[in-house]
Amino acid sequence: MNGRKIVISDPTLRDGNHAVRHELSVDQIAAYCKAANAAGVSIVEVGHGNGLGASSLQLGESLTPDHLALATARKNLTKSKLGIHVIPGFATIERDLKPALALGVDVVRVASHCTEADICERHIGFSRNQGVEVWGCLMMSHMISPSLLLEQARKMESYGAEGVVFMDSAGHYLPDDVRQRVELLVSELSISVGFHAHNNLGLAIANSIAAADAGATLLDGCARGFGAGAGNAQLEVLVAVLDRLGYSTAVDLYKMLDAGDLAEEVLMEEMPSIKSVSVVSGMAGVFSGFMKPVTRIAKEFNIDPRDIFFELGRRKIVAGQEDIILEVAKELAQHTKKGTQ
């Protein structure tokens, strides 16, 4: 029984929005916030799947605008902190971040692609100056070496981030991959380290536990694993396993199980599962949120979606480059057509 504290951050109402085309309603947001708050979840993250200000034709339009989603969450989170995901470029300080903070956001997670921490400096600095808790997030972190990941994390630390979360956006990691990175970051940084898992290879819980064992102090998880692609680490399972291992999460297990039941009933169109294309997405190292558009476009062009994923992986395509899916599909379809002539 180690008793070490793990902070739980719950992006069910943000990452889960990917799974329902960003169509979570005010009533759904309110209902889940009440349940997570009752369970004692430390941080509840709310918003468009790609974060604050990301609602658009290209990325998907939110049913519930940012200001309404955050105001609803704030009203129903009396113990849990309200968090947001912020990607500079989608979110501006004046148009998006200032109004969000005015609505009572407690935790700002400023995110970039794993090699682009530089773009986060202004958003991190501004948020720290407003007195809120600020974390840096490095997305698609499997695409760079541990030493380069440390280099980018150091930048975020220098900008004022109080912690750094590295994200397995494609569900590509194995436990040893996670352990190696956490150990390096913990040993070299003076700020906290967190980890965000996806379940494409069925390892989200194992990878999260590897992170905790290596010294991470914050873990992400979603109720019933609700999230992009194959889903995230299933939060109620994560809390249970951490409890068995003697970690302290301050989350009430029974009430978290209730929150999971509610999420399945109220939020989800279908339960997250590891479909064939999810496995390929994880193997190829491609963003989990591409599953729906890849599947749709592959059907349109009558080609194998697995081929699209492996080609996207070869090209190192990341979130925000959704237009390349169509380009790849057209090229594969033309190649297939030539091969049959």
Give a nutshell description of this structure.
This protein has 341 residues and is an alpha/beta fold. Helix content is 48%, strand content 12%.
Order of helices and strands: EHHEHEHEHEHEHEHEHHHHHH
Structural class: alpha/beta
Distance between the termini: 66 Å
Q: Biggest sheet: strands, sense, closure?
A: 8 strands, parallel, barrel
**What's the CATH class of the largest domain, please?**
Alpha Beta
Observed structural traits:
341 residues; alpha/beta; 8 strands; 12% strand; eight-stranded parallel beta barrel; TIM Barrel; Helicase, Ruva Protein, domain 3
Q: How does this structure look, described?
A:
By secondary structure, this protein is α/β, with parallel strands linked by helices. It folds into 2 domains: 7-266, TIM Barrel; 276-340, Orthogonal Bundle (Helicase, Ruva Protein, domain 3), CATH 1.10.8.60. 48% of the residues lie in helices and 12% in strands. The chain contains 14 helices and 8 strands. The chain has helices at residues 12-19, 26-39, 66-76, 93-102, 121-129, 146-159, 175-188, 204-214, 235-244, 253-266, 276-284, 291-301, 305-314, 323-340, and strands spanning 7-11, 43-46, 81-86, 107-113, 133-139, 163-167, 192-196, 218-220. It has an 8-stranded parallel β-barrel, surrounded by 7 helices. Helix 3 (66-76) links the parallel strand 2 (43-46) and strand 3. Helix 2 (26-39) packs antiparallel against helix 10 (253-266) and helix 7 (175-188) packs parallel to helix 8 (204-214). The longest helix has 18 residues, at 323-340. The protein is globular, with a radius of gyration of 19 Å. The chain starts with 6 loop residues before the first strand and ends with a helix. The mean pLDDT is 95.
